[in-house]
Fold:
Amino acid sequence: MNQKTPRSGAKKSLITRRSAIKTIGAASALGLAPGYVRYAQAQTSEPLKLGFQLHSTGIGAAYGRWYDRTTQAAVKLINAAGGIAGRQVEIVTEDDGTDPKRGAEVVEKFASQHKVDLVFGTLFSHVVIGSAPRAGELKMPYFVVSEGYHVASGALNRYVFQPGITDVRSQVSSMAPWIAGNLGKKVTMIFPDYAFGHDHRDFFTAAIEKQGGSIAALLPIPPTETSYTKYFPQIPAETEVIYHVMVGPGVLTFVKEMGEHFGSQRPQIFGFIDSLEAVDLASPGLEFLDGTYFWEAFPRYAGANQSAEDKFYREHVGVDGNGASTADAKDISTFSHMFGCWETLYVIKQAIEASGYQGPADKAKLIEATEALTSFAAGNEHPQGDKLFDGKRHQCYGHQFISKVEGNKLNVVHKTSIEDGQYENDTDYTKQSL
Amino acid sequence: MTPALRARRILLLHGGLALLLLLCQFVLPDYHHTNFVSIMVLAVYALGYNLLVGYTGLLSLGHAMFFAAGLYGAGMGVHYFAWNPVVAFIAGAAAGLFLAVLVGLVALRTSGVAFMIVTMMFAQAAFLTTLYFNDVTHGDEGLTLTQAARSFALFGTVIDLTNPAIRYNLAWLLLAGALAVMLLVVLSPAGRVLIAIRENEERTRMLGYDVRRYKLAALGVSGLLSGAAGAAYVLFFGYVGSSFAAIPYSIYPLLWVLLGGVGTVAGPVIGTLLMFYLIEIARDYSSSYMIVVGAILLVLVLFFPKGIIGSWRARGQGWIP
Amino acid sequence: MSLGPHLLLAIMEGTVSAFVLAVTALGLSLVFGVMRIVNVAHGEFFMLGAVLAWWLTSLVPEAPFWGFMLALAVAPLLVGTIAIVADRFVLQRLNYQPEATIVATIGLLYILQQAVLSIYGPEARPVVAPINFRIVLPWFGYSGYKLVVVGAAILLLLAAWYGVTRTRFGLIMRATQFDGEIAQAFGIPVKRVYAAVFALGAMLAAAAGVLVVPLQQAHYLMGLDPLLLSFVVVIIGGLDSLKGTIVAAFIIGLSDGIISVFFSPTLAKIIATLAVALVLVFRPNGLFGGKVR
Structure:
């Protein structure tokens, strides 16, 4: 913990004096934490340190496991190909327990203890919302993989980006025309009663009304719920389509109980695959899903015309053609979300190399270089497909898929264009100061 | 020991502890510097908790509601009404006091195990309330306070609570103040009545003391300190969410106080510091770091019920308050 | 859906949760009644039952029915063993002092929960129901397995009732409950009775966990809800009244089912928790319990 490299001069005398005395007293303070490692201002030859904020435990654990595998696979490839701007990439992982309070502390720890170059990988929107302000205060670039609308809405700050996965508003907007045209116009929505679910509620309601449809009922499910049967009677009889989206450890119970309730006399059912991420479609009790539809960001089952990059991606992450782990066919991935980590890492690579980023002093350059990106081409770096990037909103936009459940598999029946998911808003983070 | 000598020793111990914490800011690396801010604020919470359990003998399993009252009282004031942080802090502390008195009026009709369960149930209801009023509290997701909202002007200078040095010294000031309050209470005649209640409630009542009022006052001050800690926490770190109102935040102060020494003034501070770093270290080794909380609770209850300062006091250091 | 079927569904759901709750809470109630201690780790025994059921059924993947029977027989035994160890090395050493015991069982809660997290992992894993059929009513369908749960819970409750009121062990237990010291004087091995009762309480919770796991999934955090609900039931039912516990389980199960259909489920939980606190303050023996000895 040799802080010889000069810091930003004597601008803040207190801090500088502290740093000086720090060197003397550090040895004693060090005894407090074994994980405390030597750090110095990153030199160009030193590895690039990326802080990975991971949901290892808590309600996001199933996603976390696969976010980790995808990230490790991508980093291995990046390092094997020479790293980023000639520097090897080192991933520093911290578990946030899927808790927004801990999320903010983890960002702090990345900045002040691990001294990472940037932080990425957060999924659950409440954790993003809890952590992002701290990232902004610490001027820490923060690349989330959460699909929440909070980035593009302008609610966060200039340091937060979501370049690897389309946001919920765009996703649901692009679904509405197909639902209204193929399934029905009177929709009952079942969604979790917090920010993520509210985005679905607000933007899908607007989108379906634009198609001449209407909402028959809204069923928000409290986050502490473990049993769902009692909610289903509230679905009005005139409902033509049930629109469901659920997250957390209870998803399988939710879908099973929906099946028990309706059996074959069901209205059309359209779900977001979130309701079944990491869940085997062949689980007993899910037979009734046959003939229902799901949104997917990235089709879990590799279809007949699988692209070369899809094959490449699955091979390196260790996922088979059914979206399960190649090591254990029962271990189902979170296929429609985890690609975001892979693609985000390649966006980070692109932005760092474009900005000439050397170390934390160049963070502003990195932010501006990221904002200057406009599109990503499909390929091994972006296996989910091509995307547009809006530098003012810090958000990317890609294609979405609608799949039908047939014989315990999901078959793609529709692919949206990027334009289908366009919406108007006037977010412009580039106006904020750095 | 003469009273003067005892007073000098008490001053030396607690003044020394406070001075040490004040000086730490000059040697701590950035990360630990921030950790110490949390520790000092949480130690105030522990002090408040200890006033009730350590000096009145009432074991609460629901103090998270008072801590959260401070967090939400101050946090929502700043977030929705753009209150000055000073006003918000006072409001947060007052919210803790108010809730404690309210709960006390009902819960203090019980004692022992029933009091533990009643406080736990009230706290659970408070936690669920933060989820139920999702529209204003944003439940799980919580509220964040902007950097701009966390600074204020005082006598012409701008005080920015996100500045590490300012934050550290204000947290220290709060802790030093809380320590002083605790010493004053504990060493006052009222404090001796509280201890008498802990030792033998019946006898104290027969001596003519209005036990209920003393208990209510102790719970009130306890809630006030917990609320003040919560308010400081949200102003320093800019985030409040329902996880602060959940069960672990009722268990933590119990753990800190047990470790440092129930019924000692300095104990909770030491306990908070040690426990914070024990959890921090455990986190580096495993995701199931909360096992440390369980293991230490068991060890303390089984083998070390007096805690650190309490055991020291038991070794012939009876002067320690 | 019209009001009639709506209410019918609410009652069916309420009945199922009432029976599961009755079994879980009975365990807590027995332990409190005989040993005069509050076991905060009770929910973790429930969770352990569910997690062990996952493990045991995964040992015989080709025969889910027998796998589940194995789980139903073995999981409670394993959990009971853990409880005996906890009793011997923790509770006995504390001399069952009520407040210290609560703190110790909080410690136990975290140890069990976090041990499961590190060994079993953070995922929610499904267990296949031993009998899977769907009941079709004119208005809606219903899980047949839920009725199996009700049947099994009734058998467990009957067995518990028989054990407490009609057997020698039940007699010894009630004698110990009535007065531990006198029981000791009459040669009853109080320590062993305590260990057995603590294990029995844990086994009831574990059995409830096994029964429920095909409906939910096994997850390391699933113990909290049954713990809080059991508190509610035991307190409203009277702290040492078996009959009260079962009646209260029905009131809570049914009212939760019905209230949360017509109002917000979160509001229903807030009301229930506050009610418990108030019952404990103003009617310390519950609404159904007898008077204090």
